[in-house]
Amino acid sequence: MERILVTGGAGFIGSHFVNRLVQASDITHITVLDALTYAGNRDNLRAALTSPKVTFAHGDILDRALVDHLMAEHDAVVHFAAESHVDRSLADAGGFVRTNVLGTQNLLDSARRIGIRKFVHASTDEVYGGLPSGSAMEYDQLRPTVPYSASKAGSDLIAASYFHSYGVPVCITRSSNNYGPRQYPEKLIPLFVSRLLNGEQVTIHGNGEHVRNWLHVEDNCQGVELVLRRGIPGEVYNLGGGTDLTTNELTAMLLRETGATWDRVVYVPDRAANDIRYSMDWKKMGQLGYQPQHPLAQGLAQTVDWYRRNPAWWTDRAAA
Ligand code: NAD
Predict the structure, then answer these.
(1) pTM for the model
(2) 125 in active site
(3) Using one digit for the tens of pLDDT, what is the confidence trace for 33-79?
(4) Which CATH number fits domain 3-178+215-239: 3.20.20.60, 3.60.10.10, 3.40.50.720, 3.40.50.300?
(5) What are the φ/ψ torsions at residue 56 (nearest 5 degrees)?
(6) Which side of the chain, N or C, has fewer Cβ within a 10 Å radius?
(7) Pocket residues: Cβ below 6 A from ligand 1
(8) What residues contact 306, with CB distance under 8 A and at least 6 apart?
(9) For domain 180-212+243-278+294-318, which CATH number applies: 3.90.25.10, 1.10.455.10, 3.40.50.2300, 3.90.550.10?
(10) Nearest CA to ligand 1 atom 34
(11) What's the per-residue H, E or C state across 107-127?
């Protein structure tokens, strides 16, 4: 596979993925298709766009003519474009259904017409819903509880159906919570880091005992590339392997890294649907050769350092 179309490549994970693919000598061309919503930023691709291999196409994954045109020029698609923030989905689910479900379907239709060789759909552990104990396997039932995860579950199911119904060579990755540089400061880690660096308070919903698995974005990208190259069409791959932490434990680490203290932390009543714990079994990814490389303490220190050194990147966004 030489020519790769990356949707959502101006966002957080997509831009790290493009940086990774640029290094691969057997990939000759990468096109980023991105609508540049509030979460997308061409500047995230500044380094990648210096490579003659990388082209940027500003557009919507729902634009059938544009998608057909781009799809025809590529061997494979890696699909990251999405509305990705749970709280925004609780305020208004419409854009989430539009982009995540209908946009994914539009890409799949085009992949089917053109006969694409691989379609990697990036999804999330949140589709499994909260698990008080145990770990989700790839074939487990999906039990999403908020519009974001429901729209992702919808996109997973429509993607799987295009494999079964039409033979579109779809692989689905379900990754746990990512963190790292260039993450929009609405997600927990960059929100807390930017506020703590600014001398502001941070807010924990409920008692702070919700458990999330924190995975460095470069480890997720390693996994997505392995699935692009070696994933079996029709299969789902859980991309875990980060570190399980309660919000209280994570907050303690972020306070240490930013030199702040617990008097900056405020507890507020929990929101209605806040899954108690996510956990996935990721042995299947291990069989593809996946091995996370970033211990959490080191990854968080690097991330906080990046936000400390790049206030111009997040100051306007944090105020938005
Ligand atoms: P992000 O919000 O940072 O980036 C999304 C990108 O998609 C942005 O560049 C945006 O401009 C673009 N986009 C949105 N709607 C579009 C449309 N209609 N057409 C074209 N482009 C559009 O998201 P992220 O955190 O980088 O997540 C990428 C993918 O990974 C998403 O599918 C998300 O569901 C999934 N995921 C994210 C995480 C995480 O922790 N961030 C975890 C698991 C899975």
Answers:
(1) 0.97
(2) yes
(3) 999 999 999 999 999 999 999 999 999 999 999 999 999 999 999 99
(4) 3.40.50.720
(5) -110, 130
(6) C
(7) 7-8, 10-14, 34-37, 39-40, 60-62, 80-84, 99, 103, 122, 124, 152, 175, 177-178, 184
(8) 180, 181, 182
(9) 3.90.25.10
(10) 84
(11) HHHHHHHHCCCEEEEEEEHHH
Q: Give the model's confidence band at 319: pLDDT under 50 very low, under 70 low, under 90 confident, else very high.
A: low
pLDDT for 297 beyond 80: yes
SS (H, E, C) 37-82: CCCCCHHHHCCHHHCCCEEEEECCCCCHHHHHHHHCCCCEEEECCC
- Per-residue pLDDT band at 275 (split at 50, 70, 90): confident
- For this structure, is 148 an active site residue? yes
What mean pLDDT is reported for the chain? Answer: 96
Residue 209 appears among annotated catalytic residues: no
